[in-house]
Amino acid sequence: MSISGTDTAPARTGPAPAPDPLLVVRDLRVRFTRDGVPVHAVNGLSYSVAPGRTLAVIGESGSGKSVSSRALLGLLPESARITGSATFDGTELIGMPEREMRGRRGSDIAMVFQDPARSLNPTMRIGNQITEAVRVHADVDARVARERAVELLTLVRLPAPERRFFEYPHQLSGGMRQRVMIAIALAGQPRLLIADEATTALDVTTQAQIMELLAELQQRLGTAVVMISHDLGLAASYADDVLVMYAGRAVEYAPAPTLFGAVRMPYTAALLGAIPLLDRPSHTLLPVIPGQPPDLRALPEGCPFRPRCASSDDQCLTEPPLTEHEPGHRWACWHPEPGPGTDREEDRR
């Protein structure tokens, strides 16, 4: 895989077959114990990501998005109890020895975290931090590592990369620091990139620039991307597939055009309804989801969204499974939002 992006891809003569999934997660569960009480942070999560595709994992804070991704890389504390399966190119990640996992972090799977100011070492020049990452994954001398670091800074569109190489993190803007973090993540030429709220701390303009950069890099390098966010707008604009999480569970999962064309899970619909709209009359109160997210130490009986859902009834005391109700569209709800051309009663039947 070239990081320079100068190779020209061969012209396609016909529709390419769907690639096999690179990452397959099945029934992933993560449990912590706090004051002797189990905390079920992730409950039976399943999904897959193919090379060159972007999966957006969406949900409120505390829904299990970040915990599930860190479980894949062995980044959770020893107190975490992780079960289920997560295979990367056929190799099981769950339970992998730390020595072997250390060799895969960065080279197979890399992660870009939310706050680059906390991820970068404030006492080191950014060039040294990138060359350090390069030399961890490649047996090269200092000169070659420096050349590759400047190449990576150019790849992520950092202005004047040769000069920025010698600057410290505090001399860069938030967007520039995040570009440096992406350069570090790409140093090992990973096949899967996990962006954990990578644009949350940035202004809207810089956020769009970073997302465009990730999309461009994905096209050049064929990298699979898992984008963790609470922003449905970003998911609609940049993701190929969308997984909505609530209380550690997947509650809706579909290709992005399918999901946003016909949202079926009431929780997803409530998230969409809370997005500010330009055509909404001024001084109109924003819609809110009533209640609070459930306490993961004491989840409600049945559907975890039941106490906050306007459509709940006694049937919701039984937890609905995540089932494919329509081609490629899965949701976990007994009483879904109406589909195109139907009403809720027709859907219930």
UniProtKB/TrEMBL annotation:
Keyword ATP-binding among UniProt keywords: yes
Listed transmembrane segments: none
Occurrences of domain ABC transporter (ranges): 25-272
GO biological process terms held by the UniProt record: peptide transport
Topology of this chain in the membrane: Peripheral membrane protein
The keyword Cell cycle is annotated on this UniProt entry: no
CDD domains documented for this protein: ABC_NikE_OppD_transporters
Cited SUPFAM superfamilies: P-loop containing nucleoside triphosphate hydrolases
Keywords noted in UniProt: ATP-binding, Cell membrane, Membrane, Nucleotide-binding, Transport
Subcellular location: Cell membrane
GO cellular component: plasma membrane
Amino acid composition bias (Low complexity), ranges on this chain: 1-15
InterPro entries per record: AAA+_ATPase, ABC_Ni/Peptide_Import, ABC_transporter-like_ATP-bd, ABC_transporter-like_CS, Oligopep_ABC_C, P-loop_NTPase
One Pfam short name: oligo_HPY
Primary location recorded for the protein, binned into one broad class: membrane
One MF term in the entry's GO annotations: ATP hydrolysis activity
Region (Disordered): 1-20, 319-349
Family: Belongs to the ABC transporter superfamily.
Name the record gives this protein: Oligopeptide transport ATP-binding protein OppD
Organism of derivation: Pseudonocardia autotrophica
Taxon lineage: Bacteria, Bacillati, Actinomycetota, Actinomycetes, Pseudonocardiales
Gene: oppD_5
